[in-house]
């Protein structure tokens, strides 16, 4: 895993882009081992239950016993997600919440999933709803004992699609990903921003905000920017426009006092900066 992936915020939600099926199989085995050690239930969700990762899991010592105990399983993609390959974000989060509750009821400490989801994001319509789902499930992970690795085959999807997916995760192995927008615990606000926002990713930032679909509370959208290293004036303007459309003030919590000065110079009443220590 790259240094960028390790720097992601905690929460167990990883976007894993891979070129070689061997790399996915290695990642799946690592998460199976971590899941069993933590007492979780583990699912490998795949459109091809006989793929390389599944075959390697079945060949592992102890996997058959884990299957028998309900601690591990290879699960067909379409039994977990929509059979028409277009995900309903709210319904899908509810399905995983139910599966997590069932894992807890069976005596496990939670549910961990590695999902090979390439087939669910092949078209623009699929990608739009699935990125919305990614943010919703990220919110659920802040309160529920659920972890997920969302695996995407980069040669099939292309770099742009992978980037649109990766930026909605707190953790990623995509080395050239400049920024991330991800969920936080309810007491910490609505979402977090990390990385760098500059002229190279304004449109992606606008799209990510729209897909996150943040809902104001008491007229405010609270964003943690503790790990946001840089944002330019246009990114601030996009954030102000987003908050204004929702009849809210964006509260940007950052340790960088220069951000407050820039907001003042730009006269952006829809943004309030809270400088943190």
UniProtKB/TrEMBL annotation:
Gene3D superfamilies: STAS domain. Residues 13-170 form the MEDS domain. InterPro entries: MEDS_domain (IPR025847), STAS_dom_sf (IPR036513). This is MEDS: MEthanogen/methylotroph, DcmR Sensory domain. It comes from Micromonospora echinofusca. The lineage of its organism: Bacteria, Bacillati, Actinomycetota, Actinomycetes, Micromonosporales.
């Amino acid at each position: 895993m790259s240094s960028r992936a390790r720097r992601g915020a905690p929460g167990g939600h990883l976007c894993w882009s891979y070129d070689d099926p061997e790399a996915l199989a290695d990642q799946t085995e690592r998460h199976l081992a971590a899941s069993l050690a933590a007492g979780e239930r583990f699912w490998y969700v795949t459109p091809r239950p006989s793929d390389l990762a599944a075959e390697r899991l079945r060949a592992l010592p102890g996997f058959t016993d884990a299957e028998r105990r309900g601690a591990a399983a290879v699960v067909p993609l379409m039994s977990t997600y929509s059979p028409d390959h277009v995900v309903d974000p709210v319904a899908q989060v509810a399905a995983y919440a139910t599966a997590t509750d069932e894992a807890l009821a069976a005596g496990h400490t939670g549910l961990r999933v590695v999902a090979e989801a390439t087939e669910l994001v092949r078209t623009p319509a699929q990608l739009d709803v699935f990125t919305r789902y990614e943010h919703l499930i990220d919110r659920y992970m802040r309160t529920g004992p659920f972890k997920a690795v969302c695996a995407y085959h980069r040669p099939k999807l292309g770099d742009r699609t992978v980037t649109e997916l990766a930026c909605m995760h707190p953790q990623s192995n995509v080395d050239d990903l400049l920024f991330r927008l991800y969920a936080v615990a309810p007491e910490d606000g609505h979402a977090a921003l990390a990385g760098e926002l500059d002229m190279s990713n304004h449109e992606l930032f606008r799209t990510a905000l729209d897909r996150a679909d943040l809902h104001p509370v008491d007229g405010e959208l609270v964003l943690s920017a503790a790990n946001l290293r840089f944002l330019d004036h246009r990114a601030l303007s996009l954030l102000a426009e987003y908050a204004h459309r929702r009849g809210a003030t964006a509260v940007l919590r950052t340790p960088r006092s220069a951000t407050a000065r820039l907001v003042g110079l730009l006269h952006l009443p829809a943004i309030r900066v809270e400088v943190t220590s």
